[in-house]
Fold each of these.
Amino acid sequence: MVVDQVQDELDALAARLGRSLTIDGMDGDLIAYSTQRDDADAARISSILLRHVAPEIREWEERHIDVAADDPIPVPANPEIGMSARLCVPLRRRGRCLGYLWMLGSGGELTAPDLAALRGAASAMADLLDIPVGSGGHPVASGRDVDRLVRRLFDEGQAEACSQLAVAVPGIVDGTVQLLAAVAADPGDGGIRPLRSREFSTLSGALTPILRAAPDYVGSSVSTTHVPVVLHRGADRPGDDGLVDQIAEVVTRCLTTGSALTLGLSEPRPFGLDAAHEARTQALAAAELAALDPALNRHSSWSDLGPYRNLIGANRLSDAALAPLDGAGTSAPMLLRTLEAYLDLGGDAQATSARLNLHRSSLYYRLDRISRLLGSDLSDGLVRLDLHLALKGRRVRRRTLGRG
């Protein structure tokens, strides 16, 4: 794979020079980066986490870059954007600039042998980035190329990435596509937590190399909050149900020991821009609600969400019916938790007692107190519906992913 070869060249050069190096493309996407050293600044860390150079950083860089230069170009520091001084080497081939090689400038002057090694490696990497074409006249895409397109289409909604992904992954326009979203669940108060830096870097390097041999795997991306994985269900073969379990296993291994994982799976849809947007909405909702609501399975699909599918699209979600319980002081969380479990289980007292690890008489005491506080009869179907929707609406409002 082209990008893998570029990465190998970059790692060798970084070891030779003892510097932190990155390569980004003309569109600002990060192509490769070496192991982080003590000279890393906020701008480099941001580019690695986002897999893209922030616009204000690129604007500062381009003030000082001459793409026709043969020698490394010094770019001064800009503390306002967290950027230290660095050197830039344009990567050119056949009159085109294909990207930029960056070297942080805190390691002292380069010696003549260092400069020779830098120029030689830059030339080799430019050769690799001068991407060959396949028999159809289109660029041969590497796994990392596809992953970048997955991020652009499914996380950023870039329209041009749709046609580019169709070219990079022959056959994706046939059959259907699903998006799987994986999130790290907060074991405390529920919901999700951001990925830690080690988890982020491990996942970024693990998913595609491990999963790309699976027939249904297209590509993946990693953000600080979630991991989207694109699956292609070919028209000529059934879906690989074991792939979801395999993805869960790989992601779990990359998370900190003891971390919880929830997955959300969109409905299968024909490939396209609108379908990508819908798949993102569905997968993120299923993954996050699985972390927010213990009544849902840890691996949930959009079709598993039941009334949540309507609640997510509602303009207003009133929870006024719960106000009397909110005013119950320190007992409020316990009463709300009891009521939700009771309603989730269809009013089955035995199952509710088992779920809450509560004696039956204690459950009846709580339910009686809830009924008195509400001034309502919990055996009334409309009362139950109103309260249940109010409880689930609160969980919907706690969502942070994929809104808007």
Amino acid sequence: MKDLGLAEHLLIFKKYSQAFNRFAGDGIIDLDKRLRIAFDAIVSRLEDVVPCLNGFVPPFRQNAYCIAFMKSGSGDKRIGDFTFPIKKNTLFVVPTRALNSTVYHSLKCQGYVLFFDINLFLKSELPQHCIANRKVFKNIIQPFVELDELQANTLMTIFEKLFIEQQSEGTEKLETMALKILELLMFCDRLFSNANLIGAKKTNHPVVDKFNSLLDNNYTNKRSVKEYAEMLNLHPNHLNFLIKKHNGLNAKQMINNKIITESKYLLNNSSFIIKEVASHLGFDDPNNFSTFFHKCTGDSPIAYRSSPMYSAAAI
């Protein structure tokens, strides 16, 4: 694991900011393709990171997982289908490859942000499933929670220990970092489990997890339940049953929701004309996209973009 001092942390986030500016025309920036920075884990203070990013993070996705805690400050955050304010004592998590964006209302924020790659746990003695199966990283769960002062102080202590450990040296550093991240995740799991969250009563299933992963990687070219069922070696009816049981929506609704979520991000955060939005989502004919969008939302893409909701959602 590469030792990262504060100056190197800031350099990494400056590179993030440069990539956000350079590839703004993508609409949704895939950092795994646009910015290749190798690190197992990096924990930084928000008071250092937010100014580096000029208080703005456009829609992006990457393989790294993220946990962030705002001790003080304010802003707006969007993760997948969820749009919510971030303020004092707000904890939020971003699963791998989850679409997200942020607007900070001020550069004066306090807290911590952690990015880590699951391969960190391959390099230590801890198995990957310690991370992959954590409830907080399931896309069906509300990705944020507001903490009381006791919970906030406990969380800050864990982050601070992790931040200090990151500056240390020695052969056991990798193992120690992995253990401290696991401690953080276990505490976050308890916080999320004890909160009254949207989706908290839904359960996980290996097939559902595989379906969600396939959907993330194939939504632009595969839009039928039959195609996903074939990849999972299941009958379409059985796949629909499992998805409905564990997610509350059937497979077709999940596929449609994925496309609508992506299209709203593009309509909200890019200057793409409708034809370009349609092309990004795998529609050969923009009229087909407009028909699909209207059927799912009740609005045309143009009407959605021109509505008051558009301005509120464009974060």
